[in-house]
Amino acid sequence: MIAIDNLKFDEKGLITAVVQDAQSKEVLTVAYMNKESLQKTIETGETWFYSRSRQELWHKGATSGNTQKVISIKTDCDQDALVVEVLPAGPACHNGTTSCFTEELLKNDQVGTVGIIPYLAEVIRTRESEMPEGAYTTYLFTEGIDKICKKVGEEATEVVIGAKNRDKKEVTWEAADLIYHLLVLLQEQKISVYDVLEVLVDRHQQKRASTKGN
Asked: Which residues, if any, are the signal sequence (predicted)?
């Protein structure tokens, strides 16, 4: 663990803080901290920043209620910038958006990202809530748990068959189908995808702790 005094603050006593959603990994905002606001962040477990325009400390969400629960704080190799992972209670941006980063300069839609999983989970949740006519997800929820379980089983079998046939294209395609139907199943059971990810994290941490102990 690095001490605050070992961080490299600039000539104005500030350090850049990149705030990131601890679950989705989406960058929410970029702000600045001084030693006092960083110390308050650590002590309270919620983000505090330093406003360069007002020249004062400010507690994120103090008036709006959109606080940010701090999960971790990391510094880079030069120790002159921070990544603050948080669980946000609401929008990060004063414009009311989840993230301050909404304007695109470049986007390559052909590059896959794990961010599609929480996005797809939210789409599925919305489908179950609104049940739009003609949507395949609506059909699955209408048919119920037996149909959903059957589809998960079918897609899992297709993945196995593709793997046995050494067909990478088929495995990739069927794995995508399996993930989608598994997300539908999780929603039907009212289990968050993040709950599943937390289990994976816990298992990994327990394994690391066990390895170190030996």
From this structure: none
Query: Does residue 109 sit within a domain?
Result: no
Tens digits of residue pLDDT in 166-208: 999 999 999 999 999 999 999 999 999 888 988 988 898 887 7
Pairing assessment for the beta strands 27-33 and 56-59 based on DSSP bridges? unpaired
151/132 Cα distance (integer angstroms): 20
Give pTM, 2 decimals.
0.68
Contact 151, 62 (CB under 8 A): no
CATH code for position 144: 1.10.287.1080
Q: Is residue 136 part of a domain?
A: yes
Name the DSSP class of 46. Answer: B
Share of the chain above pLDDT 70, in %: 96
- The helix/strand/coil state of 91 is coil
* Torsion of Cα atoms, 33 then 35 then 41 then 47, to 10°: -10
Instruction: Say yes or no: 59 and 126 in one domain.
Output: no
Average pLDDT over every residue of 82-103: 94
| Number of domains within the chain | 2
Question: What is the DSSP-derived secondary structure letter of residue 90?
Answer: S
* Structural domain for 32, as ranges: 4-88
In a domain, 144, yes or no: yes
DSSP state of 182: H
- Of residues 62, 1, 20, the one with CA closest to residue 37: 62
CATH of the domain at 16: 3.10.20.810
Please state, in angstroms and rounded to a whole number, the distance separating the CA atoms of residues 105 and 108.
11
